[in-house]
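Table S4 entry, 3-dehydroquinate synthase.
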Amino acid sequence: MQSIQANNYKVHFNQNAYEALNIHLKENKYSNLFIIVDNETNEHCLPIFLPLLETDLTIEIIEFESGEVNKNIETCIEIWNVLTELGADRKSLVINLGGGVVTDLGGFVASTFKRGVDFINIPTTLLSMVDASVGGKTGVDLGNLKNQIGVINVPQMVLIDTEYLNTLPQSEMRSGLAEMLKHGLIYDSAYWKQFLDLKAIDFADFDALIYRSVEIKNEIVVQDPTEKNIRKALNFGHTLGHAIESYFLESETKKTLLHGEAIAIGMILESYISLHKGLITANEYAEIKTAIKSIYEDVKVEENDIDPILELLIHDKKNEYGLIQFALIEGIGKIKINQSVENKLILDAFQDYKS
């Protein structure tokens, strides 16, 4: 597969990825190499990766506990301390091997340590391959608020090897699929149509679907790297989805949702809002709702859950001048950003989801 040119870095695929990495290591005089993993990728992915690495550099592995609950500044402090103790300097290289939590947090750690050291992302989940590792967003959660602390800073390269997907449970594959569905809904109706019958998908060709998803995200990001305009399109499903994800993460009585599970709900809700703002047709909404619900189980949202979810919208990073801003679809394959939505319509969307 041909590499994709992003803003000041490339996304390399499968075997080409390791060739590009090893050339990069030979051409750059790094002092040492730190690989950040969580306990899952340390066990399942690091044994795949290390034999493919060609370097004489001293390699140190830094592991933290997996899960969104550990994507916080406390984990960063622990890693910064370890880097300091192990003699990391401005010429060190950090490789983030893992899912979105690892690439987000590891990218932030590298971007801020000694005011920034080089880093490379190697996503190992479907979600991080098509979303988290591409685009330069790094960061951590603040309490239960998603990605409140962070910087936009691009890696030296992103390496996508779909071999790592064989280490994932089906739930993680479904989680990543939500972002692929989103890319179709906001940008490419033909791509969306490919997912309407999952049974018809030839998963031998799944690499091509991943490639197109990365391509779509990259085409949007190169136009607007710092999210002042069209990049906001990528937040479709995320305004309500992130609030739901944060609420379920904080609740002691709710089962924590995977990112894609929450975004799937958000896409249905925000498609309903798009319908009632006259942006999509009833047939388009029915198609979206049916397709998403055929993949993701319904999540029980009680009446007393809705108000605290809505309160979390206040902290959404897209808000401007105190106004909550939505990215809504304007027909399948098109987007309309900076849309204000009244609370009653949001409440109606929740009622429709539950019906």
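Residues 4-168 form a domain with the Rossmann fold fold (CATH 3.40.50.1970).
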